[in-house]
Amino acid sequence: MRAIGSEEIIRALPMGKAIAAMREAFAARVEGRVDEPPRTVLHTGASRGATLVMPAALAVGDVPLLVVKVVSVFPANREKGMDSIHGTVIAVEAETGLPIAMLDGASLTAIRTAAACGLATDLLARRDSAVLAVFGSGVHARTQVQAMREVRSINEVRIYNPNTESAAAMAAGLAAGGASACRFRVADSPASALAGADIACAATTSRVPVFEDCAVPAGLHINAIGSFHATDREVPGATVARSAVFVDDREAALEEAGDLIMAIGEGLVEADHVRSDLGSLVLGRADGRRSDDEVTFFKSVGLAVQDAAATQAVLRAVR
Hints:
Helix content is about 35%, strand content about 25%. It has helices spanning about 5-10, 15-30, 105-125, 140-150, 165-175, 190-195, 235-240, 250-255, 260-265, 280, 305-319, and strands at about 1-5, 35, 40, 50-60, 65-75, 85-95, 100-105, 130-135, 155-160, 185, 200, 220-225, 245, 275, 295-300. It has an 8-stranded parallel β-sheet with strand order 10-9-8-11-12-15-13-14. Strands 1, 2, 3, 4, 5, 6 and 7 form a 7-stranded mixed β-sheet that branches. The protein is globular. It starts with a strand and ends with a helix. The mean pLDDT is about 95.
């Protein structure tokens, strides 16, 4: 069985290929070509952490795969000088049951999560979108920037984090990456990050909204990936209520996405407020953005099929 680490994954799965893999994965899911049992969430340790076990079988592509990911999310790890996300992905040949690879789950998750948002942004954001607001400054915030710049001509990235040193480090790191056509700066408030923005990405561990609805400009497209607990949310209920909402999966979102669950609980929306899942949007079975002024919101809780498709793309590249 081959072991594939984070550096090899990053080389094998550039963001453009990752977004293409997500497009195929979400379409295959809607077409019934994916076996994806519900994931299991285990809460362990004294801190507020969770370990997720996510299986999926993908019956498309050059090598049909069964993939199982075990990923842990422990935000308090940062206080101990440790990464907050750890994970492992096991790839198994679907036709023989032969384990063929073990991959670093943290890097694969960061890439495939951003790629799903890149796909949603490509389908929903205005074509002339150029200003990006990012909430958070961790690994997932950085991959979100990569994905947004893959699908739109972004010329300004505004980073907001109450920890200004972390935000400044992210801005400096992105600027040093050779993106001369793009300006990276630290925003001094959520409102200043959103003023005139075209796209916003929330990639935080916050339990409460990271911006106020009054700061959301018309026509904004929002991606939110940070929360996957029913009691946590990054986006205020008022914003959810006035947005066209899209999800990776309806059932999963209504069980785990606090952004939606809490808005429903507050009586602001009903469950049918969700316009479409991403796969139906890819296949043209649902409407996307209906006007330039419409606010669109993609909420992702993450699906195992994303891991399967990303793993398949990595294995294809390393072969």
